[in-house]
Amino acid sequence: MLDVVVPPAPPVIEPAEGPAPAELVIEDITVGDGPEAQPGSVVDVHYHGVEYDTNQVFDSSFLRGDSVAFPLDRLIPGWQEGIPGMKVGGRRKLTVPPELAYGPAGAGHQLSGKTLVFIIDLLGTK
User: Fold this and answer.
1) What percent of the chain has pLDDT over 90?
2) Which of 52, 62, 83, 102 is catalytic?
3) In terms of pTM, does the model score above 0.85?
4) Can 59 be counted among the known catalytic residues?
């Protein structure tokens, strides 16, 4: 018999209320009990990202069905600041202003000028 692995369902991100925050907002949804991510480490994550103003999904490893491993120092500044200190097994919500994401409007990326909201599951770190 073939074992079928069903990827985890993407988390639900409730529509934001009020103006977008000007600073990075870090909220632990679940505190993990594994090793702690350090600045400059490589992290294995599942993530789900939406635009703050529209709540439209722009990227999701959950929807692709595969986690992704990244060196933290190659990610947007909001992740570089928002993931260290998180423990494996944890889930964290980051609300990232444009300055810590893809820059101000007109900076050349489709998400420039947008505040982004991510739910991140930390699966591993090294």
Assistant:
1) 87
2) 102
3) yes
4) yes
